[in-house]
Amino acid sequence: MIEDDEGHARLIEKNIRRAGVSNEIIPFTNGTDALGFLFGGSHPEKGSHLLVLLDLNLPDMTGISILERIKSDAATRRLPVVVLTTTDDAREIQRCYDLGANVYITKPVDYEGFANAIRQLGLFFTVMQVPEAN
């Protein structure tokens, strides 16, 4: 999970757990650390299954840059990327899908709407198949 807002990160994890997802969630508050995990020395073990929850508005780089990097590398191209952001601009949504985002979710402004959207996303996670990391 790449999310710089601690409140959003807690809410996301809490509601994904409520939906029955027990997978490890590795939180990152910036793109540099997240990309370091995916492409650097602390990369995931071969055979692990990864899914990226990505905010577009980060302090050090845009989520678009991260998405481009993930989808342009043969080792990470197949990783499912779920964009979770407050940005609801149609051009940004189209751009994310053009770059290979698998799902784009606009964070509802109100707490209950946000919590409900994440719970539904968690239910989706319980049935989706995720490829192995290369």
Structural account:
With 134 residues, the protein is mostly helical. It has a single domain, classed as Rossmann fold, CATH 3.40.50.2300. The protein has helices spanning 6-18, 31-39, 63-72, 90-99, 111-127; strands at 52-54, 81-85, 103-106. Helix 1 (6-18) packs across helix 5 (111-127). The longest helix is centred in the C-terminal third of the chain and has 17 residues, at 111-127.
Q: How does the SSE layout of this entry go?
A:
Layout: H1 6-18, H2 31-39, E1 52-54, H3 63-72, E2 81-85, H4 90-99, E3 103-106, H5 111-127
Parallel strand pairs: 1-2, 2-3
Helix pairs in contact: 1-5
Key structural traits:
134 residues; mainly alpha; Rossmann fold; 3 strands; 44% helix
